UniProtKB/TrEMBL annotation:
Residues 333-568 form the Helicase C-terminal domain. Belongs to the DEAD box helicase family. InterPro entries: DEAD/DEAH_box_helicase_dom, Helicase_ATP-bd, Helicase_C-like, P-loop_NTPase, RNA-helicase_DEAD-box_CS, SPB4-like_CTE. Residues 267-295, 372-414, 635-751 are annotated as: Disordered. SMART domains: DEXDc (SM00487), DUF4217 (SM01178), HELICc (SM00490). It holds the Pfam family CTE_SPB4. Residues 389-409 have a biased composition (Low complexity). Gene3D superfamilies: P-loop containing nucleotide triphosphate hydrolases. This is ATP-dependent RNA helicase.
Length: 751
């Protein structure tokens, strides 16, 4: 089903009730002519004051689906709302990026309604300037939970006693990230403020430190007194509403309307409206029977998305990634799956900050090796014609663990060829980049907020250029045709980057939901897109079956042999295995010659192996470290040391390492060589099991969660302040046992 169904084509925003001048504005200035299905379905229930449980596929326009009717409701009020009436709408988001994005959309939508003031609290700014904005007053506030609670408790001038709407965008993610207690605290504070206002309607209740010793903020959702929240319209929104939301939704939503375009039905638990805010409408009807509670239908991707899996053994992952990226950006014929475009913007998902940093640094420096010209006796470059390429079938085994027999028929000339480039760096200074005219970016939670914003802007300037960004690029002389961004899952939720037509899930997703959200960064608003998932052979069937069972879609298998053959043809070689070996060798040599890059690579390798097990139950049967060969994983990070040695060796090229590299080239060509000293697989597993969660790993994990930790620190600080106030008043209290931090990847099992 497309974003706009046939029936939807007849519906414009005008028919939904937008005033004509406003429709003119959003259609002409913002390009929103027809509502998407989710916007169509949610419009009247929100106008009617109903609580909403909204689930719709990624990129289907959920932001507008809740913002437009809310803003319309507020804008129509007479006399006009003023900012000194306090905050009427709070939108909670799990990440700063999403916060920023929603705030930007709200700002644009509100241009004709200048009396409605939007604002944002996400922790990227100084508290004092945030306080100043709150003091002036804002009608609509987009915030991350930690920073919002901070201001609720400490900014006296923050007025929210007349709150009318709370929206939880990406609600399941917010809970997953361990914000449950913070949200509970926020709701408790809001309830108190609303109750107080109800008792004394003329009082202008600001916020501030009003906690008493008896204000024990409960960590349990079940202990929120939600009666006052009945006055507030609550909206839970996500592309994936999981079971961890059931209890939460049950507590904060009253008689919600479920909106799920996938099922194309609206449902409600009861016919009657129980909310006191039903003041707006009595004509609220339940248009359809209840949505069946089918946990397998919880995840949805756009039908315009092509899902692919690329099977690849660990030791060839790096080469395969480079080849795939080159194939996409050069519009080489790597199957019918990829758009032939002048400019490609590709997001590559990795699982750790260290990996994102490493890959960006490597790809930025990597040059195209000189195939066929470096051999001792020289080797004539072969012609760049398709007829020279070996048959696909012969190289399909390129991606199997053992080289194909076809690949093993090297002659003496081939043997000499392995002396190619020794260090792989000779004469490379003048070589073109492996991925020409491509800007590389990284986005992860360990970057400062400023860095993250400028990265997103720089990437967007290529993926979706505006006149302004084009001028800026030309001024600065940095004109890239393509963009590749290495991201952790910090970017997988809600980020709306138009023009991204390819997603590569290079390192495994942490859960099924993560898979969906990552893939959903393309095919937005009805556009076409492709998502490629890298899997090992032993993972492929399990992953495909899981996606099918969960009705996420069918994952087609990518013809990796064809991809490699094409690269070989491009560089004038016949043997894709040889080409792969040379590329791998170039990466390894570059890493060996560059100390900081090697450190990055080692860090990325360690965090990859450690993190491999932190997979949610929905995917733990697919990705298990039992079969992970750490030696091969090291190869995929361009490391030649055995896993045991990684981190111990000094950066720089040693002759021993260099000869090992040549041996590896020979091994890949299936030449009889002295056995390379690689750990036995059992030994590898011992290495991996060495990486049991340590303090160091916990630290890294916190880094991965970036801003969340920062917010947790803030919470802790507030708790301590509260404790000391309490103790100074009532004396020391028996310490309460601390609840363990909920792992970010812990999600409910529904398969
Ligand atoms: N009615 C519309 N007409 C045209 N474009 C639209 C319309 N509604 C939304 N869009 C565009 O579609 C894109 C996706 O919208 P949005 O970010 O709200 O999707 P989403 O459902 O929240 O996705 P996700 O679940 O990934 O966060 C945005 O670029 C938005 O501008």
């Amino acid at each position: 089903m497309s974003l706009f169904s046939d029936k939807q084509d007849e519906t414009t925003f005008l028919k939904l009730g937008l005033p004509e001048f406003y429709y003119d504005y959003i259609s002409k200035k913002l390009g929103y002519v027809k509502p998407s299905i989710v916007q169509h379905l949610s419009f009247s229930p929100i106008l009617a004051g109903r609580d909403i449980l909204m689930k719709s596929e990624t990129g289907s326009g959920k932001t507008l689906a809740f913002l437009l009717p809310i803003l319309l409701k507020l804008s129509l009020r007479q006399p006009h709302i003023t900012r000194d009436q306090g905050t009427k709408v709070i939108i909670l988001t799990p990440t700063r990026e999403l916060c920023n994005q929603i705030y930007t959309v709200a700002q644009r939508l509100l241009i004709p309604f200048h009396w409605i003031v939007p604002s944002m609290l996400s922790g990227g700014e100084k508290r004092t300037s945030e306080k100043a904005r709150l003091r002036k007053g804002c009608t609509l506030l987009v915030a991350t939970p930690g920073r919002l609670l901070d201001h609720i408790l400490s900014t006296k001038s923050f007025v929210f006693s007349d709150l009318e709407f709370i929206v939880f965008d990406e609600a399941d993610r917010t809970l997953d990230l361990g914000f449950e207690k913070t949200i509970t605290d926020i709701l408790v504070q809001i309830s108190k403020k609303v109750v107080r206002k109800m008792k004394n309607p003329t009082e202008q209740t600001g916020s501030g430190l009003e906690l008493s010793a008896h204000d024990d903020i409960s960590p349990e959702v079940s202990r929120i007194d939600t009666t006052p929240l009945d006055r507030i319209q609550v909206l839970l929104v996500s592309a994936t509403l999981k079971e961890n939301l059931t209890e939460f939704a049950g507590k904060v939503l009253t008689d919600p309307v479920r909106i799920n375009p996938a099922i194309l039905s609206l449902s409600s638990s009861k016919k009657s409206s129980g909310k006191s805010d039903k003041r707006q409408s009595s004509s609220d009807e339940d248009p359809a029977p209840s949505e069946p509670v089918n946990p397998l239908a919880l995840l949805k991707l756009p039908s315009t998305l092509t899902q692919l899996s690329l099977t690849c053994p660990s030791k060839l992952r790096l080469v395969a990634l480079l080849t795939l990226l080159r194939g996409i950006i050069l519009n080489r014929p790597i199957g019918p799956y990829f758009a032939q475009k002048e400019s490609h913007s590709i997001i590559v998902f990795v699982s750790t900050c260290a990996s994102a940093e490493f890959h960006m640094a490597l790809f930025e420096q990597l040059k195209m090796p000189e195939f066929g010209r470096k051999g001792k006796h020289g080797r004539k470059p072969r012609s760049d014609t398709a007829s020279d390429a070996p048959k696909a079938s012969s190289s399909l085994s390129f991606f199997s663990s053992t080289p194909s027999s076809g690949a093993a028929t090297g002659d003496e000339e081939d043997t000499e060829q392995y002396t190619y480039g020794r260090t792989g760096l000779e004469g490379q200074a003048h070589n073109p980049p492996f991925l020409p005219s491509t800007g590389f970016f990284r986005l992860h939670g360990d970057m400062s907020q400023l860095d993250r914003v400028s990265t997103i802007n720089a990437f967007a300037a290529i993926s979706n250029p505006t006149k302004k960004s084009k001028e800026k690029e030309e001024r600065e002389g940095k004109k890239f045709q393509h963009a590749v961004m290495f991201c952790t899952d910090v970017a997988s939720r809600g980020i709306d980057l138009r023009g991204v037509s390819e997603i590569i899930q290079y390192e495994r997703p942490g859960s099924l939901e993560e898979y969906v959200h990552r893939a959903g960064r393309t095919s937005r608003a009805g556009e076409k897109g492709t998502s490629v998932l890298f899997v090992r052979e032993e993972e492929r069937d399990g992953m495909e079956r899981t996606l099918e069972i969960a009705k996420i879609g069918k994952c087609q298998r990518m013809d990796s042999g064809r991809m490699m053959n094409d690269l070989a043809t491009q560089v004038g070689e016949q043997d894709p295995v040889f080409v792969a070996a040379v590329i791998q060798h170039s990466c390894e040599s570059l890493i060996l010659s560059d100390g900081p890059l090697k450190n990055k690579s080692e860090g990325a390798f360690r965090s990859f192996v450690r993190g491999y097990t932190t997979v949610a139950k929905t995917l733990s049967h697919v990705f298990n470290r039992g079969s992970l060969h750490s030696g091969h994983v090291a190869t995929s990070f361009g490391l030649k040391d055995s896993p045991r040695e990684i981190g111990k060796s000094r950066p720089g090229i040693s002759s021993q390492q260099d000869s090992e590299s040549i041996r590896m080239l020979q091994k890949m060509k299936n030449k009889p060589v002295q056995k390379q000293k690689r750990p036995h697989s059992d030994q590898s597993e011992m290495e991996i099991s060495h990486f049991t969660p340590s303090t160091e790993w916990k630290k890294e994990k916190r880094v991965m969660l970036g801003q969340i930790q920062e917010q947790k620190d803030e919470e802790e600080k507030m708790r301590m302040e509260k404790k000391s106030r309490r103790e100074s008043k009532y004396g020391p209290r028996k310490p309460v046992e601390k609840r363990p931090l909920k792992p970010a990847t812990q999600v409910s099992e529904f398969l």
